[in-house]
Amino acid sequence: MPELIKDLEITGLVHGGRGIGRCDGKAVFVPMTAPGDRVVCRVVRSKSSYSEAELVAVVEPSAHRREPPCPYFGSCGGCQWQHLFYPSQCHWKEKIFFDQLLRGKVVSQECLVPIVPAPDEWHYRNRVQFKCHMTGKGLVTGFYRCGSHSVVEIKRCLLLPQQMQYVLDHLHKELPGAPCPECITQVDVACGDDGALRVLLHGLTKGRRQLQVWLQAFAQRHQINACLQSGHRHTIELVHGETDLTVIVDQPPIAMGYGPGGFAQVNPAQNRNLIAEVLAILDLQGNEKVLDLFCGMGNFSLPIARRAGWVTGIEDHAPSVAAAINNAHVNNLKNVEFRVADASTAFSRGNFDDLDLLVLDPPRSGSYHASREILKARPQRVLYISCDPATLVRDLQPLVHGGYRVVSSRPFDHFPQTWHVESLTLLERRSAVGCQT
Description:
- The chain contains nine helices and 22 strands.
- The chain has helices spanning 86-103, 162-174, 208-222, 268-282, 301-305, 318-330, 346-349, 368-377, 389-400; strands at residues 4-9, 12-13, 19-23, 26-30, 38-46, 50-60, 127-135, 138-144, 151-153, 184-191, 197-203, 225-229, 237-240, 245-249, 254-258, 289-293, 310-315, 336-340, 357-360, 381-386, 404-412, 422-429.
- Helix 8 runs parallel beside helix 9.
- The protein folds into three domains: 4-65, CATH 2.40.50.140; 90-120 and 267-429, Rossmann fold, CATH 3.40.50.150; 127-245, CATH 2.40.50.1070.
- Helix content is 24%, strand content 31%.
């Protein structure tokens, strides 16, 4: 295969966001291309069955292609699909998700439900991590470059709401003047659903005290909450204001607090849509016994507890469990308990017989061990919230081969301008193990 391919037609998109075409019968993967493009590309890695290439030029643009509105697109690694019109992004996320589940033989076609697009393709993120790197010209603040750990300076991000862009503007102006800027490695900025802002500055231990003084003055000037971290999450300390931010879900509203180092969905509007879908498909009757693994601050536990008999939440991050307990108390929910434990091994450590519903919301790595454990407890239904189709398929396989069938599986676009996709899959225990998926 020649190093330079002068005319390659892109016929589709694949998991990971790259376009795919064929040259002499061999698959060629090219980032930043759109289905229908004809491109010139340069092969950078060649294997026996496929090649990886970089885009040199678009000879004939696809009707699905648009001019990316962000000037950093292509160098910043945060977005991969800004060159696609948003309806095309959703179409391909849905197709790639469905194809992965069908190839994995964990669902039938009639179980697949159309994607839920995001309410807004821009300004949707409520959390972001800015990487910091000291160079010969000073401190650079931004995001990692595509495929590397070098930092691209970012002065404006179209995925941020206005109040978070306000913080980024002031960080760019004032961070270079901080004491020992070479000790600053990252700055997390988050926004609550009520508009409150929080900055979490990551610094090396040797600069901790100096950075603490600077950060406190910065937070006071701009009326934001601020924390400092100099190692693992247990080193986080409050510098100014309050630690917790608020997430609002359900109707009537449930307000939930979560602290720095805790997890919250990055797209709050789509998170509310996801929870509404959870409650609709579960159709709880008020007497169910529920176990929520990887429960975090209670994002699913608390809305479900309003409608179920009893809910137990399991999470290994102790501050998140403390937040969940407090959230239940504040919202006057007394039929829910939370425990600090490894969610992937919860079944081997606790008594969870006669479960009506198991909720799983693991990290991107999934929870294959928990899937194996489920077959021992055999709850009536399993609800799996996933942010990675590959680990979802892997985790579903022992379930569908061990007496469960997929009732429905639906992708949700929580991350416009990227190839990432969230999903919601409901399984139920078969009455006859011999049934087909």
